[in-house]
Amino acid sequence: MTSTETTMKETVQAKWKKRPLIISGPCSAETEEQVLETAQRLAKTGKVDMLRAGIWKPRTRPGSFEGIGTKGLPWMQQAKKITGLPITVEVATAKQVEDALHFDVDVLWIGARTTVNPFSVQEVADALKGVKVPVLIKNPINPDLELWTGAVERVAKAGIDQIGLIHRGFSAYGNSEYRNAPMWHLAIEMKRRNPELPFINDPSHICGRRDILLDVMQKAVNLDYDGFIIESHIDPDKAWSDAKQQVTPERLAEMLDEIVWRKEDTSSEEFHAALEKLRQQINHLDDELMQILGQRMKVAEQIGLYKKNNEITILQTNRWNEILERAFKQGDKIGLSKEFITKYFDAVHMESINHQNKIMNS
Ligand code: PEP
Ligand code: MN
After folding, report:
1. Which CATH architecture is the domain 269-360 placed in?
2. pTM, whole model, 2 decimals?
3. Which of 205, 206, 216, 230 to mutate to test the pocket of ligand 1 (most atoms within 8 A of CB)?
């Protein structure tokens, strides 16, 4: 290994541990000039740690730009040489892994359309055997944590000991505010299960549009993510792929300045004492809620008994609508969202039905 290569390996190690870790670059490498100019403008901001670009693009429909291919890799290599930024690209096949490593790509990432397919993940994992390179794994396009976990296990089994997770949102049918619904609760659960893996947010593919990027980024910071992979382009509107969601390197720098950064912990004793007090209150209230829910179920069981003796169905749609309407009105007054009330009452109602079913069938 040459000394420049050794220094780059050390840089990658340091960046991997840096918080927040900021990875940026175009959705796709398009031309040599575009890659080099993006890299230089990103480096100039002083806020970006690694350069990303898609070389092979898995597109949902044929006919869109499917990536420049292997000929874009020397451009990335050159961008690294000029800026000192480590580079990362998406790989989906053994050949792509081989080509990326041949051109000294420092970090690989597995895309959302690959994570869904265990055959593809295994092919990539097999190609990684005996290689020391950090790998980032995007969530699968469908909301399935087991697939995501499976991909992590396959790559880990191949001997890769630096694995990171990228949350890029989940496909949903129909129109929504987001291109890919964030489903934060799934991301939080994946983070909870893998506390030792860097957890990176990809606001670009969650949002699909520029105007809500900052909002999603702030949410991610509030949830203690370890960094971002975010798309940037020298002329976003003219990008060959994902034009609507890309921002200029300068706009990215502004957004990073606008974010309120938070840390997970502090050594301040005063803070911990105050927090502890409030947490005890929460525990206390949770205990009360559980007691009350238990009582509610006992009453539901009594109703079940009456219904059983009078041969009445458990579900009475009118009554259910009445409960929800009452709750919406009350919730509105005390600041509980309609979304929460619907979810909460659905769960409570299902539990009541289960209790009543037991009585009915006994
Ligand atoms: C990308 O990062 O450009 C990309 C293709 O993302 P995803 O795999 O999340 O769709
Ligand atoms: Mn993209």
Report:
1. Up-down Bundle (1.20)
2. 0.87
3. 205
